[in-house]
Amino acid sequence: MPAALVYALTAQRDVAFWDTGEMQTVPWIAGIAHPTGFPLFVMLGWGFSHALPLGSVAWRLSFFSGLAVVGAAWLLFAVVRDETSRPWLGCGAAIVFETAHTVWARATRAEVHDLALLFVAGSIFWMLRFYRRGSRPDFVRSVASLGCALAVHPVALFVIPGLAVLGVARRAGLDPKTLCLALGSGTLALAAYAYLPLRSLVVTRERLDPTLALGLPPGQPFWDYAHPADPSRFWWLVRGAQFHTADGFAGYARPAALAGAYGHALAMLLGDLGAVASVLAAVGAVALLRQDRVRGAAWLLFALVPVPFAFSYVQEADPFRYLLGFDFAVTALAGIGCATLVSLAERSLPWKTVWGVAGVWLLLVIGGWNIYRNLDIPTVNSDRHAREMLTRVVASSPPHAIVVANWTYATALAYGAYVDGTLGPRHVVAARLEDSGQNVRTWSQRYCVLVVTDSRTPDFAGAPIRTRALNAMVPYVLQVESDSGPRCAPRGTSRATPH
Fold first, then answer.
1. CA-to-CA distance for 368 and 345, rounded, in angstroms?
2. What gap in Å lies between CA 20 and CA 16, rounded to an integer?
3. Half-sphere exposure (CA, 13 Å, Cβ side) for 463?
């Protein structure tokens, strides 16, 4: 619970750019997100953001993600407790995990990977219990949690090898009924993907997407990304065909890529947890392999399998969010390693009662050092560049203007249009400018058209479009100049004569 309070106080409170801005918007409007759709995050985020009458919508969805990480940290505590019979060391490991930079930074923004982590942690927790106890309900719970994780994000695929090692090793405890229950529960969780085509049908039939009024076809971002009501587009969306995911999987087959990926992961680990926790994790891995090769192999797979994809998937701007599961596994191993050293000290050295307390304090010191190193996170999360961009757009255009922007900036504009109403009745079009030249020319004959971009001289793929910069720094807000169309509001004014 203290972590929940810290995350609540340090979470993003206002609109942001990039994917964070999208996930501040899409759940609130029950829209459709970019590939792979993340349907369970959208549905649960919609319920949470509408049920909690506190703060901005941006903050609510950031806090929702933070609560998911808190849940994953509780499961980490439970795993270490079960593995070591030392609950206080489990508490210390959970604190180390919650305060790691990769975890804390992503627990304070609207992030689908946080919810996926929660369900991945649940699948690990219950499969370990099934392996130790042979409890069939735990096996069913593990598979159901895996299904929920996959319904949030396919990153959950990387936990399957470790789960399989544990499940196969304990397969004698499974009967056909249990297997059928597990398969049914996992399939039921994956049925969340039915949300995508069903919602797409509703959005199209009710014309909920304002871009339809501009003559654009169904399938625009935020309300109806890719229009998955069409079966072929549904398959395109859920398999992430827009992105070169094959590059990520190819990393497993290239020795140089593997070496580079694990080198990056080690550097990340030292930055996140420090050298002491990294050594503790190595001790924990060795101890587990000596005690039980199956459990040891499973933990190594939980930690190592995601790494090559994360650093080989070159289209991913933030590879570290693919490694939340890596941090989870390594921190659990650090807790196990700390327990191993405590047990060794208790057997070999005097003052036996002291060493357990010393182990807990060691983990708490690591957590405290993490907090000190991460004091910049609240400052980063209070960045107001997106809000300033929205203010500039409103001051530079009349109602019913069209604002065209690439993905980076369109996400924040969508929040202003569909969540808090900052943009009023202005139309937001998310598109690459080089693909939008003809539309921009046509719209500028009837509307004030603004373009938000990184370049003062955007490329419209040869289309003869004149623009004028309204500000002097990125992101540039450009007015499209038209000989016959309406004029935008003069720079510095907030209203203009409607057209």
1. 24
2. 6
3. 19
Kindly give, in sequence order, each residue whose CB lies less than 8 Å from that of residue 74, ignoring residues fewer than 6 positions away.
Answer: 94
pLDDT tens-digit profile of 363-393? 999 999 999 999 899 988 888 999 999 999 9
Q: What phi-psi label fits residue 50: left (phi over 0), alpha (psi between -120 and 50 degrees) or beta?
A: alpha
Q: What is the DSSP letter of 483?
A: S
Backbone φ, ψ for residue 55 (5° rounding): 65, -175
CATH number at residue 426: 3.40.190
- Integer-rounded Cα Rg, in Å, for the chain is 25
At which of 333, 350, 379 does a domain end?
A: 379
Residue 126, CB-side half-sphere exposure with 13 Å CA sphere: 18
How far is residue 221's CA from residue 62's CA, in Å, rounded to a whole number? 21
Contact 119, 152 (CB under 8 A): yes
Structural domains counted in the chain: 2
Is 236 in contact with 226 (CB distance < 8 Å)?
A: yes
Q: What is the pLDDT of residues 445-496, one digit of tens each?
A: 889 999 999 888 888 877 788 888 888 888 999 998 877 767 776 544 433 3
Q: How many CB atoms lie within 10 A of CB 120?
A: 31
Q: Is residue 312 part of a domain?
A: yes
**Same-domain check for residues 67 and 124:** yes
CA angle 388, 390, 394 (to 5 degrees): 115
